[in-house]
Every structure is written in C-alpha cells, then in structure tokens.
C-alpha cells in the first residue's frame, strides 16, 4: 500500500502548478513591464534627439532679425519634445534643457528627461513578496547631447587700389591676381567644410567688399530708403550752391540759356520750380536728379539747304574769333550724360565709422551718392552765338574738369554754380577722360552681399565677384572696413546677416591692403577753388561741411591731426585714426583679451601685402592694421594680423582658413 501511494502522482501536478504560478506570473509581469519601459525610454530618447535637433537649428540658423531668449528656447524645446512623446504622458517625462553658456563658438546643447514609469503588473508581483508600490523606484534618466558647430559670416574686404596692379614681391604675378587666387582658395576650403554640415542651413556665408578710394554699393539701390534721395544729409549739398538758381538771382540771359528752371528751398529740401522742369517740377534737387538732368548731344543729322557761320579758332589774348567756317544747321539727338555707378560718400562723423541704421529722422545717417563736381576750368563754344562760356582765364590745373563753367569771377564760384549743369553739352565738345566725370573715384565693382558657399551656385557667385576685381584708384581702408562690417551686420543696407549677437554665430571681417591710406592732395598754389585734394569718399579735404568748421576727413580726429594741414601725410594720419575707430566699434565696447584669447563681437583679421617696416608710411600702415586686428579665440596671445609677401600670400590665407575652421569647433 505504501508502495502504491508513493507511485500515485495524480494530485502532484496541481500542487506543482499552484506552486509555480507565483514565479511564472511574476516573470510574465516583469517581461511585460520591462518591454513597455524599454519602449517608453526609446520614445523619450527619440523625442529628446528630435527636440535637440530642432533647438540646434533654431540656435544656429535663426531667421534674420530673430532673437530668442533662453526662456523662449526652452519653451520651444519642451513643445517639440512633448509633441513627439506619443503615448508617454508629458507629466511622466519632465524635460531639462541646458543651453550653451558661451557667447561664441558652438558649445554643447544638453537635453535631459527623467522618465517615471507607471507599471501594469509589477505592483501586484511586489505585493506577493510583501512589498508596496512605494517601494518601487521606476524612474529613469534619459540624456541627449548635441555638440554644435557654429555658423560663420565672413566679409572679404579687399584692396582694389591702383598699386594692386604691381607685381607681388618674389613672384612674376600681379598682386591682384595673387589676391584672387588666395581668396578663392579660402572660399573653397570653407565651402568644403560647409557642404558636410547637414543639420544647419547656410553654415558658412561670404561677402566681398572691393575697395579703393570709395566703395560701390550697387547702382540698382538708388531707390532704397537708406539712401539720401531728398538731399537731407548735411553733406549732400556740400559742393553745390543751389542759391545760384533761385529765381531772384536769375537774369533774362540766364533763363535764355537754361530755360524757365529755378531752385527753391522749401521745408528743408531744395526743389524744382518753374515750367522748364516739365513733369519733374516740384521734385527734389539732389545728386540723383543731377545725374538724370545733365544732358549731352549724342548724335546729329544735317538739315538740307541750311547754312550757319561757326567760329573755329580764337585769339587767346582777346578771345576774338580769327577763323570761321560755314556749316549746315543740325538736328541733334540728346540723352542723359551719365548715370550713378553705385559709389557713396562716407557719412559725416561719427556715422562714417559705425553701422548705425540710416533714417530720415537723423539725416546724417543717410548714405549720399558720390557726385564729383565739375572743376574749373573748361571752354565750350556756344555754336549759336559764338559766345565763349568761360571767359575767366584760370591758369590752375584741375584733374576732373568735365563740364563747361558758368561766367563767374572766381574758381570757387565757377565750381559751385549749379546753372552750368543745365545747359546741353554740345556734340563737338571734348568728352571727359576715362574715369573722369561725376563718378570720379568710383573705380570698384559693387559689393557682393553674404552668400551661402555650401551651395555650388552660391560659391560661384562669390568666386566670380573675386575674379571680377580690377585695380584702380587710391586706398581708403577705413571706408572699406566700415562697409565690410555693414555687410555682415543684420541691419540695412545689407540685411543678409544673422541677428547681431546671435548665439553660435561668428561674424568675421578680413581686411587686406597693399598700401597706406591715401587721399591725393592738390597744393593750394594750383587750386584756386580751395579743394585741397581730389574728390573721393570724404569729398574734398578742403571743403567744410555744415557749420562744423572742420572738413570730413579730419572730423573727430585727435589733436595730433592738424585740421588745416592739407598734406598727404596728414591725410594718412587722419585716415589711420578713422580706421582704429571703425575697428574698435566693430569689435565692440567689451573688446578685450580674456585668458589670453579674444572675445570681440566682430572678429577682425588684417593682412598687409608687400609692406615694409623700413618705410615710414608703410610702417604706419602696418601698425594701424596690427592695432585693428582681434586676438585669436583659439591661440593664446595671438593677434590675427599677417604681414604677407606676394610669395607667401597663399600660405597666409591657409592660416586664415585654419583659424576660421577652429572657430567652428570651439566650445
């Protein structure tokens, strides 16, 4: 019997099953909850990654003019994160965002969520072993970190003055050609890096600012609100005397020559009065209107069976005619003499050295188109009455004599008298020489705004602009530098730049010149008009503007600069000081070294080409460029200045490319 009892197993299966149910159900509960918590952790991780990428894009590729606070960025991250959690309750996965704290360089964006899991079966399983739900710690920390590579906006401020046509030292190539090759090499290297970045739109942008005696902002900007289209700026009429055309000052003989056209100062603006203006009557008299109104005879056709007597030679001492010829009457075709080519003058101080937005409420901030006045003296014969239009035998030599003077007794009046511009230039009158006329000193191609070089088409635009550069004119480094800054600034005239101070974006101005600042003087002994210089971005060095009593080139310079010393060396000294001001302003009020490295708002890199410390004026230029440069952000104590020769210019630009590359990974 005992043996049969031991062999009987019919009831043991139930007992074993009951005994096994606890571990089996516990294991099942653990498996289900483990699978679910793993799924939720993956959902949270994916949501973190997605939110991190979204915030990174917002940080590094914000829209122009957009500046988000830390609070706004964190709220944006939370919204993006929560929208991607799916079945996970946002309350069960609170988000912590740690934004980069550095104001430059990319830094690291850290996203962290603490996932609290609400289990399905685990509490019951815990109860079987005498545990309560409060004993279960089902919180998991999920982290995601994104190392940001910052964006860069670079303005290439490149010397296009006449000396760039000379051969670079140690080479058989022109300096301008060496510069083109080095600049394009820099663009290519940065473009290659930019094309590898997928998470940021337009990571590297380049602009090109060719400069010589002035800077060209493009002739198709002539209707922009930041240009002085009404003649409001205190320098707009600096070289023009519109009172010569006030009706009370016009004689019948004057009206016979230029028609019923007068000028009237009304509401702070000089305006066209009289029926002779036609459809433009009442409009403002400005440099823009001058370009439109100056007319020349461009072609002619003989009228059959007509004859007139024309004086061809005069006696120099008396201006009496000594030789006449008979010619037919002609039907003439007239056209606008020339148009504005896009160059602007320097704004009056202090606005010449900053990027203050231009506004009509502060007229001095508006940009004034260049218009080089006709300098005395020039002779045209009026073929209708044989009258010599300029009877004053001025013996002074003037470089930019391109129009006929009115009959005034002195050179200054003849230069400033506006009546002369409203006679039609005769068909046979000598044309102005190449590069002369109202666009005198406007020798460069227009600025190329910031352009994305990660795109093949954008890179081509920048490199084509570099290839198109050509030498000509004097050297005005401060004006070139000021426009280099304005190109990367976010405000008008150029608005392509990211918001100033945007986190993770660096703005860089690279300035290269092969010579000292130059403003050509004209000695008083040969300048009866008191110009004291040729015309360029600061106007005439000898012509005072407004009531300041100081000419623009000397305005706001130190006492070391003689305000009435009109020499090329003094002009250089004044322009060197202007250069230091624009560089200091661009780098910012907190520009300094921090732990041996730079922290400027705008990074300024400067390069001198073929300059020698043994020549005093070139030594001054070298010192000015070195003082202008920022400190490196990656190499302790290093000034971002290079004194290059023609032979090593390519190597210098490779070093600049390395410096720019380091900026993109600094944290």
Structure explained in plain terms:
Keywords: Membrane, Transmembrane, Transmembrane helix. Pfam families: Tad. Residues 11-57 form the Putative Flp pilus-assembly TadG-like N-terminal domain. It comes from Aminobacter aganoensis. InterPro entries: Tad_N, vWFA_dom_sf. The chain is an alpha+beta fold and 667 residues long. Among the domains are: 14-147, no CATH class; 151-218 and 441-664, von Willebrand factor, type A domain (Rossmann fold, 3-Layer(aba) Sandwich). Helix content is 28%, strand content 17%. The chain is built from 13 helices and 21 strands. The strands form 8 sheets. A 6-stranded mixed beta sheet has the order 16-5-4-17-20-21, with helices on both faces. A 3-stranded antiparallel beta sheet has the order 1-2-3, with helices on one face. Residues 381-395 have low confidence and may be disordered.
Topology:
Elements: H1 2-7, H2 12-60, H3 70-83, E1 95-98, E2 108-116, H4 122-128, E3 139-147, E4 151-159, H5 175-195, E5 204-211, E6 215-216, H6 252-258, E7 262-266, E8 269-273, H7 287-293, E9 295-302, E10 308-314, E11 321-327, E12 330-336, E13 343-344, E14 381-382, E15 387-388, H8 411-416, E16 448-452, H9 456-467, H10 477-488, E17 505-513, H11 568-587, E18 593-594, E19 597-598, E20 602-609, H12 616-628, E21 641-644, H13 649-663
Parallel strand pairs: 4-5, 4-17, 17-20, 20-21
Antiparallel strand pairs: 1-2, 2-3, 5-16, 6-13, 7-8, 9-12, 10-11, 14-15, 18-19
Helix pairs in contact: 2-3, 2-4, 5-9, 5-13, 10-11, 11-12
Keywords: Membrane, Transmembrane, Transmembrane helix
Transmembrane segments: 12-32
Domain Putative Flp pilus-assembly TadG-like N-terminal: 11-57
């Amino acid at each position: 019997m005992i043996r049969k009892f031991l062999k009987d197993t019919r009831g043991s299966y139930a007992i074993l099953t009951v005994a096994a149910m606890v571990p089996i159900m516990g294991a099942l509960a653990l498996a289900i909850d483990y699978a679910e918590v793993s799924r939720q952790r993956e959902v949270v991780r994916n949501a973190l990654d997605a939110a991190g990428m979204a915030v990174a894009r917002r940080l590094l590729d914000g829209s122009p003019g957009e500046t988000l606070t830390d609070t706004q960025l964190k709220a944006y991250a939370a919204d993006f994160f929560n929208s991607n959690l799916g079945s996970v309750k946002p309350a069960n996965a609170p988000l912590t965002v740690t934004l980069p704290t550095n104001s430059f360089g990319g830094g690291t964006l850290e996203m962290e969520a603490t996932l609290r899991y609400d289990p399905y079966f685990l509490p019951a399983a815990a109860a079987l072993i005498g545990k309560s739900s409060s004993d279960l710690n089902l919180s998991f920390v999920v982290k995601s970190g994104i190392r940001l590579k910052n964006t860069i906006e670079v303005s290439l401020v490149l010397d296009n003055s006449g000396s760039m046509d000379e051969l670079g030292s140690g080479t058989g190539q022109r300096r301008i050609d060496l510069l083109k090759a080095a600049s394009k090499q820099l663009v290519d290297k940065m473009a290659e890096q930019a094309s590898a970045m997928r998470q940021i739109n337009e990571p590297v942008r380049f602009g090109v600012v060719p400069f010589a005696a002035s800077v060209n902002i493009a002739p198709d900007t002539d209707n922009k609100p930041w240009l002085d289209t009404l003649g409001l700026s205190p320098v707009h009429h600096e070289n023009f005397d519109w009172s010569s055309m006030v009706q009370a000052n016009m004689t019948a003989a004057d009206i016979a020559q230029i028609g019923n056209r007068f000028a009237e100062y009304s509401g702070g603006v000089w305006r066209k009065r009289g029926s002779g203006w036609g459809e433009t009557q009442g409009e403002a008299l400005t440099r823009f209107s001058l370009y439109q109104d100056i007319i020349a005879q461009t072609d002619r056709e003989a009228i059959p069976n007509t004859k007139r007597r024309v004086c061809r030679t005069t006696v120099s001492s008396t201006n009496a005619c000594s030789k006449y010829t008979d010619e037919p009457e002609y039907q003439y075709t007239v056209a606008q003499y020339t148009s504005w080519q896009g160059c602007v003058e320097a704004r009056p101080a202090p606005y010449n050295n900053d990027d203050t937005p231009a506004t009509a409420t502060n007229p001095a901030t508006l940009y004034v188109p260049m218009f080089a006045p006709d300098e005395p003296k020039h002779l045209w014969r009026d073929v209708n009455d044989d009258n010599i239009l300029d009877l004053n035998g001025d013996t002074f030599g003037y470089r930019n004599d391109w129009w006929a003077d009115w009959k005034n007794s002195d050179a200054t009046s003849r230069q400033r008298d506006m009546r002369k511009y409203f006679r039609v230039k005769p068909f046979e009158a000598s044309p102005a020489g190449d590069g002369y006329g109202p666009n005198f000193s406007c020798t460069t191609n227009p600025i190329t705004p910031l352009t994305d070089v990660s795109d093949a088409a954008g890179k081509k635009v920048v490199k084509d602009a570099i290839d198109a550069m050509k030498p000509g004119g004097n050297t005005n480094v401060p004006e070139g530098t000021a426009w280099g800054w304005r190109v990367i600034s976010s405000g008008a005239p150029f608005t392509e730049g990211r918001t100033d101070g945007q986190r993770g974006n660096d703005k860089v101005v690279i300035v290269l010149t092969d010579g000292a600042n130059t403003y050509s003087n004209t000695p008083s002994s040969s300048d009866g008009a008191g110009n004291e210089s040729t015309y360029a971005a600061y106007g005439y060095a000898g012509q005072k503007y407004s009531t300041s009593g100081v000419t623009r080139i000397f305005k706001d310079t130190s006492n070391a600069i003689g305000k009435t010393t009109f020499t090329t060396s003094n002009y250089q000294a004044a322009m060197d000081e202007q250069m230091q001001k624009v560089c200091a302003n661009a780098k910012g009020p907190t520009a300094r070294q921090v732990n041996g490295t730079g922290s400027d708002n705008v990074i300024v890199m400067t390069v001198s080409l073929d300059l020698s410390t043994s020549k005093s004026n070139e030594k001054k230029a070298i010192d000015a460029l070195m003082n202008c440069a920022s400190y490196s952000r990656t190499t302790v104590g290093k000034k971002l200045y290079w004194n290059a020769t023609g032979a090593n210019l390519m190597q210098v630009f490779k070093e600049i490319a390395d410096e720019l590359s380091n900026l993109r990974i600094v944290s």
